[in-house]
Design brief:
Elements lengths: L11 H20 L1 H28 L6 H4 L12 E6 L3 E8 L1 H8 L3 H8 L2 H9 L3 E7 L1 H4 L2 E7 L2
Antiparallel strand pairs: 1-2, 2-4, 3-4
Helix pairs in contact: 1-2, 1-4, 2-6, 4-5
Amino acid sequence: MENQKIEKPVSMFVIFARFFSIVAKHLEQKYGQEGLDLLADCVKEWGFKRGQDIAARAKAQGKDNTLDQYLCNYDMERSELFGYITDYGKEEIHQEFTRCVFAQTWMDADEEKYGRIYCENIDPAIASGYNKKLQCIHDKIMYKDKHCTFCFKMKK
């Protein structure tokens, strides 16, 4: 036992990303692109439900599901495994992520194609579930651009 190296616990974010890849691989092996499309639909449905839960959290505090209540009632903690800057504008919120444990886990495992299914679908779905008028413009992605950018704003 004295020569055995004890590893630190793995982040829940890493565990989630690994599980997601396993599910994606099995769906692809069994159903091909149709399986990956099904997974994308599941991500969208789960994201929409998460958005509804965020709106319910705001409502429980006597707040409406407005733009200014979105991130402060968000359902996922931000750890040091994410590097990001948030700029609040009058009618929009901009976020730039320079570090993402999800994307890094998928890139390290050469499973970027599975990570993209999650990354390209989750935030727009969460925003829509929170408020059907809230749009999420996700125009830069970690895999291609080495950072992610998001703009949240209400449709007119």
